[in-house]
Each structure stands twice: as C-alpha cells, then as structure tokens.
Amino acid sequence: MSSPESNKSTASDSTNSSCISYVSETSTIEYQHETWNIYVSRVHELCRQLWPTASKDEEFVIEKLRGGSSHRAIGIKPPSSTGDSHDRYVLRIPRFQFRTETAHARQAREMAIVRYVRQHTSIPTAKIVFSDSTIKNPLEDPYVVQSRIPGQDLLAVYPTLTHQQKLAIAEQWGQMLLSEFAIRNDFAGIVDASTDGIGAYIRPFVVYPPEPEDEPQDVGLLSKQSVLGLLTSQFERWPAADQRAYSNDVKMLGYEALTTVAQQMDAVGLFKDVYFCLCHLDLAPRNVMVEIKPDNSVRISGVLDWDSAVFGPNFTTCEPPSWIWAWSEDEDEDEEYEEIHANDTPATPENQELKHKFEEVVGKDMLKFFYAPQYRLARSLFNVALHGLRSSEAFKLTERVLKDWEEMHPRLTGSSPPLGPVHEATQSRQLASMNQDLAGIEDIQEAIRLVEAAKMNQDPAGIEDIQEATRSVEPASISQHSAGIEV
C-alpha cells in the first residue's frame, strides 16, 4: 500500500512540464493505456484513499499533464476539507513497458536518487509524499505522488527574461554546478536504494546483461578508483556483455580503440585534477523550473529528471551552458557545434556580461573542464563507457572521438588508418546483428556499391580496402574478421 514520504524528490522525465495541462489520445494509443475518462475514475478513488479527510461533497481537481517516455503524469489539487488545498501534486505512473519484475527496483532507485540529492545538496527539488511500488491500489499500477514545483520551465521562459533576470539565472546555474562538484565519492557509480527501501548508497556501474560478479557489493570493500581505471574497466566488460546478450562472434574492437584513447588521455595528464562527483547528466533548461516573483526577481524553483544521475568524472557535468549567453530558438541546432564554440566571445556586451557572470561563479580553475576540447572528447568517452556501443549514435560518437583525438594528438596516435568503409561495414554488421538496424543494412549495401564504383575507376587500393569491408559482411567470415576502429 502507499507509504508517506518525508524527503524531497524531483520529477523525472514527466514533470518538466508539470504546469502544462495536456489532453491527448496519443499516449492511449502508443502505450496501450486505458482511456483518460476511464483512468481518471481510478485516480479519484486513489485520492480518496490518500486524503481520507476529504469531504464527500468536494471533488479533487485532476488534470492530465504532458508525460514522458517512461512515465505518465497527472496533476492533483486536493479540496479544502483536507487542509491541503494550497498544495498541488503530481502523480507519476510508469508506462506499461516498464511494469516488469524490475519495476519495483527502478522506482526504488528513482526515489533514492531524489532523497540523496535533497539530503546532500541545496539544489531545489520536489517532495515525495506518497508512493506504492505494488499494483495493489486503485490504479493497479506502481506510483509516486510528489509536490508540484511552482513556476515555468526555463526553456519556455528564458527568451522573455530581462537582462538582470538572465544574470540571476547565470549565477544560480553556476551555483547548482558547484553543488554537484561538492558531492564527491571515491569511485564512480549510481545512487541506488538500500535493502530497507529507505536509505541510499552508491554502487558501481554494471553492464547489461550483468556478470555474476556484478551483484551488489559491499561498498566498504571498494577502494579508491581512478578515472582511467573506470574507463578501461567498462571498455573491457562491454564486449563480454555483448557476447552474453547476442550470442554471436562479433568483434567489438571499437572498445580497444577507446581504451587506447583513455590511456593516452591519462598519459598527457588530462585526468590529473579529476574527481568523481554527482552528475545530473541532463541538466538543461527543459529540466529546470523557474519562478518570477512580484518584485521581478527570478529564482530556480526546481530541477527535474534526476533518474539518470550518476557519480562520474567531474568533467562529465561540465558541458558549457552556452545557451545562457548565446541563446538560439533553433531546437535542431548542432549541439556539438555549440560546445566547440562555447568559449567564443559573445557578440554583444550584454551576452559578454552573462558569460562572465557564469565563469565568475564556477571559478577560473574549473573553466578548462568546460571549454578545453580534450574534455569535450572525454565527456563522449565516458558516455560510451556508461552506455556501451549499442546504437548507431554510439558508433558515430566513437568515430568522432577517435578522429578528433587523432587530430589533436597526431604524435600519440601515429599513422592510424582512417575510419573508412572497413570500419563502417564492421559496425554496420554489428548493428544489424544486434539491433536489426535497417540503417546498418543500408550502409553495407553502400559498401558493396563502393566496390563496384572502385572497379569502374580501376582504383586498386580502393578496391582492396572496400572488398575487405564487403567480405566482413559475410556471416561465415565475421569470426575471422579483425578489422575495427583503430587509433
């Protein structure tokens, strides 16, 4: 049954729009939900149980909110008879595809992260007031009820702010990052729920499917970890996990290349001043709520979507917030381009002042982690170490890291072969085998077309390389194929 909570929480992917009413049939179709008219009666029944003092003559105000990919969201305002009428709440329910045997553990972890953030930082979050990880309730679903953060999402409101208000946001954003930097740990990992379901602890990362030795460990037995040790360990474990998951003989040599880059980064001192700290991983305007006061002052009222938070290298949370001083209305603008040019001098004095304010707050010693191109690559390296090479985007990210690192440090990388058709075909075969990726199949077909083109042009070198790439497509030769992404 439901249990009251005394700690604060953040909303996950759904509450970043917790102030937006949104009624649509899309979720009913996409996630095979009951229709809203039917489900809302279940919500009313749940509310009567959670607020038993509510008068039968008064109704709860229930509204559908824009949810996310993993949770649906519903707004609740209790009637005055509960003595709670000045507060508003968000009910979060996992989507159907997350209602598995691991749903309980997932929900427990999400709440543990939120409790941890509230206990150890000054970053504002929502408050969890009720939760139930079972289906023994009127919803027949696990759920969490949390306080509704006041204000509007920063993504919508930032362009309308005055210069003074934007300066306040720049300062508060820097302070939030300092709060994350201050929460450190001797090793990387995620915040998970302790066995009592109330406390929280930090456990090392696992890869999926996990190895037997990836069972929960006694954190007291874990020693201090280095950044290089974290990266190389992950790059060693992912290939074995891929073999367990897909039962094929695909060679994941991309991990070997990434391991080499990690070793070279360490050798040039890139990890010298790095420590493990709390990292939100998706700290962006869409996940931040702001409140404008009557005196026109502005404050960050809450940070959402902590579900993916980890303890990682401090450079991980140092993606430069260039939107503060270089706001763009184009949502499709290249994020990598923005990061590369984040340290460019802004065009106007006002934007220069915004950039200076942020840098003043975080301190000059931290600026290298935000702006140095090597740390941009290190962030990408950690991303692959965390999630593995299990998508076409991960392969593309790996290619960019290897290419950019070689350009930055040619003496370290030597005369490595370019990322050409051989590597593309190898990666495409991996994706087609693991994910049945149609794009991968198209890439293989493109490699074959390149062979024919090379023959027509009588390009012996091109024919040789591309034919090798094409041969890698044949299942019989996969186990013997040693070409991969090399540094």
Q: What would you say this structure looks like, in words?
A:
The chain starts with a strand and ends in a 9-residue tail after the last helix. Helix 6 (227-246) packs parallel to helix 11 (373-387) and helix 14 packs parallel to helix 16 (460-471). The protein is globular and about 80 Å long. The strands form four sheets. Strands 1, 2, 3, 4, 5, 6 and 7 form a seven-stranded antiparallel β-sheet that branches. Strands 8-13-14 form a three-stranded antiparallel β-sheet. Strands 9-12-15 form a three-stranded antiparallel β-sheet. By secondary structure, it is of the alpha+beta class. The model is unreliable at 4-25, 415-423, 433-445 and 450-487 (pLDDT under 50). Helices cover 43% and strands 13% of the residues. It has 17 helices and 15 strands. Strand 3 and strand 4 form a beta hairpin. It has helices at residues 26-30, 36-50, 103-120, 154-157, 163-182, 227-246, 254-267, 335-340, 349-362, 367-371, 373-387, 392-408, 410-413, 421-435, 438-456, 460-471, 475-478, and strands spanning 3-4, 8-9, 61-65, 71-77, 89-94, 126-132, 143-147, 152-153, 184-185, 190-193, 200-203, 276-279, 288-292, 298-303, 310-313.
List the main descriptive attributes of the protein structure presented here.
alpha+beta; 7-stranded antiparallel sheet; 3-stranded antiparallel sheet; 13% strand; globular; disordered C terminus
